[in-house]
Design a protein that fits this description.
Blueprint: H1 17-47, H2 51-56, E1 58-59, H3 79-97, H4 101-122, E2 128-129, H5 133-150, H6 153-165, H7 182-198, E3 209-211, E4 218-220, H8 233-241
Antiparallel strand pairs: 1-2, 3-4
Helix pairs in contact: 1-3, 3-5, 4-5, 4-7, 5-6, 5-7
Length: about 240
Amino acid sequence: MGGKPDQERVDRGPVDPEQVIAEARKAFFVMFGFLAVIWLVQLANSTGHYALSRDYGVVSGDLGTLPDILSAPFLHWSWAHIESNSGPLFVFGFLAAYRGVVRFLGLSLLVAVTSGLTVWFFEGGGVDTVGASGLIFGYFGYVVVRGIFDRHLIDTLIGIVMAASFAYLLTVAVPGTPGVSWLGHLGGLIGGLLGAWLFRDRRRGSLPTAPSGGAGGGTVRRAPRAGADSPRADLHKELGDLGLL
């Protein structure tokens, strides 16, 4: 017996304002906690004459420091170093995390690895590299392009504003700034751009399959967000495509 295929609504992810606010609240506390941790580590580090930075930083080509690519972002060389990193880290970290903390944690791991490995492979002169600036550049790159991959209008606009406001950051992701690990910055930026693609919202635009009434395979169909005879159906569709619904 034949029958009409079932209509199923495409899941475009959480759009409930309360859920968005809840995610933003979690992102705020995650970043607040992260900053609290690196400031506590800095307090212990400075009291020990920065022995932690010497012992757990990344040194190019040194196999013993390879695992330290995960500890180096928590360490700094001075109070001025951590102060200059804290503001951008919180802002870009919050913007990267407010659409999902779990995805943000995966992004942070990816950026720490790409930044640390870039330093480990290419930095010269046995320099001991620490600092959260690789994460900052990773979050920056992620925030700038995330909206494009997710096809989300609000995130795209945020990315444009961040790119226009903080484009000067890219000047320290190229060679020439003394005492700055431009390789760590570049590696972090690459990790952020890669993360925007790897952690993109794959549910957007996907078409679910629904079985037909016959014995054959399924039929793919996107259900309208409102009734076919509703004058708001086209408006709902356009707003959904823009990421506003």
